[in-house]
Design brief:
About 80% of the residues lie in helices and about 0% in strands. By secondary structure, it is mainly alpha-helical. The protein is globular, with a radius of gyration of 17 Å. Keywords: Membrane, Transmembrane, Transmembrane helix.
C-alpha cells in the first residue's frame, strides 16, 4: 500500500516554505525513507506538466522524435538527482551532515511546488495563453522568489550564515543553467 503520509505532510509543509516559514520542516517524514519519498513524489507530481510542456515544444522539423524525448527525460531525471548528491558532499564538508536530510527533504518538496508553478507559466506561454514577454516576466519573478525560498531554507535548516546560504543558491542556479545547456547541446548535436 502506498504511504500518502509523506505526500500530505510534504506538500503542506512546502506551502509553509513558500511563505518563508520553516516550522513545518520537522513535520515532514524524515530519514532515508523521507528523502526517497520526497524525491519520488516531487518528481512524479511534476512529471505530467513537464511531459506536456515537452509535447507542446516539440518541433518535428527541428528535433528527432525519440532522441528529443530521451534527452529531455534524461535531463529531467538528472536535474532531480544531481543537487542532492552535491549537497550531501557539501554538508559533510561544512560539518552539517546531521541537518542534511531535513534540508534536502524540504528542498525536494519546495522544488515540487516551485517547478509546478514554473512549468505552468511555461505551459501558458507555449499554448499562447500569455505572451512571451508576460511569461518571461513571470518566470524571472518566480526565479527570484525561488532563490529567496532556497536561501531561507538553507539558512534555517542547515544553521549557516546568509553568505553560505547564498552560495547554495548560486550552486542551485548554476546547476539549472548547466542542465539547460546540456539539454540544448545534446539536442543540437543530432
Amino acid at each position: 500500500m502506498i504511504d500518502l503520509r509523506a505526500l500530505f505532510y510534504g506538500l503542506a509543509c512546502a506551502s509553509r516554505l513558500v511563505r518563508l516559514d520553516t516550522s513545518g520542516v520537522k513535520m515532514m517524514v524524515g530519514g532515508a525513507r523521507g528523502f526517497w519519498a520526497s524525491l519520488y513524489w516531487a518528481a512524479v507530481l511534476v512529471a505530467p506538466l513537464y511531459i506536456l510542456l515537452m509535447l507542446l515544444r516539440f518541433n518535428p522539423e527541428k528535433h528527432e522524435g525519440w532522441r528529443y524525448f530521451f534527452v529531455e527525460s534524461e535531463t529531467y531525471i538528472l536535474a532531480w538527482l544531481i543537487f542532492p548528491v552535491l549537497m550531501e558532499r557539501i554538508c559533510t564538508f561544512i560539518n552539517r551532515r546531521d541537518q542534511f536530510l531535513d534540508f534536502i527533504i524540504a528542498y525536494n518538496w519546495l522544488g515540487c511546488l516551485y517547478n509546478t508553478m514554473y512549468l505552468l507559466v511555461g505551459l501558458a506561454q507555449a499554448s499562447k495563453l500569455i505572451t512571451w514577454e508576460g511569461a518571461s516576466s513571470l518566470s524571472v519573478g518566480l526565479m527570484f522568489a525561488g532563490l529567496v525560498w532556497i536561501a531561507n531554507l538553507a539558512k534555517r535548516t542547515l544553521h549557516i550564515p546568509l553568505s553560505a546560504a547564498i552560495g547554495i543558491v548560486i550552486l542551485d542556479l548554476f546547476l539549472g543553467i548547466m542542465m539547460s545547456i546540456l539539454s540544448t547541446g545534446l539536442l543540437a548535436s543530432s
